[in-house]
Amino acid sequence: MRKSRKLLATFLGAAMVMASLGACTTQKSAETTTTAAAGETTKAAEGETTKAAEGGETTKAASGEKMHIDVIAKGFQHQFWKAVELGSKKAAEEFGVEVTFQGPDNESAIAQQVEYLNAAIANKPTAICLAALDTKASLDSIKAAQDAGIPIIGFDSGVPDAPEGAIKANAATDNTAAGELAAQKLYELIKDKVDGATDTVRIGVVAQESNSQSIVSRTKGFVDKMVELIGSDKVSVEGHDSLKAEKSGAKIIIDVGIPAEVKDADAAAVASAILEKKDLVAIYGSNEFAANAIITANEGLDKIGKDKVIAVGFDAGAKQLEAVKSGLFAGSITQDPVQIGYQAVKLAYEAASGKTVADVDTGAKWYDATNMEAEDIAPCLYK
Fold first, then answer.
1. Is 1 within the bounds of a domain?
2. Are 70 and 181 part of one and the same domain?
3. Second label for 262, Cα 20 to 30 Å away, from 126, 286, 295, 345?
4. Judging by beta carbons within 10 Å of its beta carbon (0-12, 13-18, 19+), is residue 383 exposed, middle or buried?
């Protein structure tokens, strides 16, 4: 039996988010979507064989049986994944396929995700969309999918370092570029405090973990870009071993904190330890979880905000949106999670239909209190 998780949002709320799908994408993305909808007569419809949704028998797509696509996410603890699911269901509706969306209890539950992947393969779906927590742990499962002729599409961070040809395409944010954008925006806000500093100046970084490729990329992208902007001879990267590059005598310190476990209390403790340092001028949270940890830690410290420590986040969620709106956060970077889910299923549908598919960059944008209602930003800001 397939496991399926349903959104707690009302049907009306889901419909409203789905209706806004195209607003957070570029014109090119909108055109691609329109083309896909119009091009529903694919090679599969012309008679190429695909794996049927039920039983895995080889059949004609034109026989009337729906394709079935399994979408396996990294978790459900963030609203981000609920928005991804909305996008996947929008694509399922548009392309006439069935979608099962599931993920482990949290983003450290690697073994649980592999179990879901194995169960999906055993059910012989038409295609699989996968945001892998750990590629190495999934290699045997990926090989089994290949042997069964089940195409795999990566999404979010995809399936990094997978065997060549195992992943047909990816629907994802360029997380390194997104992290670099966060660094560029924050640097513009603190430039006068770091350029020519004679005393120690500290920039804090809070990341959820050091395993997820998407989080690692946007954290490292931020750190590397900030080092480039300030000058590599002036910066010492300290804190977590995964990014440490200490430089004796450097006046600018980038202080990276990552909790031992993906737990709210642990992350808030890491954020608190950084916020309590007197030389701190700015802090960055590289996803919703990390940004929320900074907000929680600040509740007892009152360190961030206008004319205080400058805070910048990533993703959205009600807590972070309120922080940006109120000025507690100077701004954040948003992905387009609805489009990630939509494009993943669209790519899976096309791959299963015999089409050649290519990676889709679903984009990232800066938002602050001045542009949260803009037509290209508002649909991306899930609550």
1. no
2. no
3. 345
4. middle
What is the C-alpha separation between 183 and 180, in angstroms, rounded? 5
Q: Is residue 37 part of a domain?
A: yes
Residues 260 and 207: their CA atoms lie apart, in Å, by 11
Indicate if 84 and 70 belong to the same structural domain. yes
Residue 112: other Cβ atoms inside 10 A: 15
Reference 24, options 370, 363, 346; nearest CA is 363
Which pLDDT tens digit goes with each residue over 286-338?
999 999 999 999 999 999 999 999 999 999 999 999 999 999 999 999 999 99
Judgement on whether residues 189 and 263 belong to the same structural domain of the protein = yes
- The answer for 317, left when phi > 0, alpha when psi is -120 to 50, beta otherwise, is left
Domain count, the chain: 2
Residue 372 lies in a domain: no
Q: What φ, ψ does residue 312 adopt, rounded to 5°?
A: -135, 140
331-334: strand order across its sheet: 235-239, 252-257, 201-206, 280-285, 310-314, 331-334, 365-367
* Predicted TM-score of the model (pTM): 0.74
pLDDT in tens, 326-361: 999 999 999 999 999 999 999 999 999 999 999 999
Residue type at 258 in one-letter notation: I
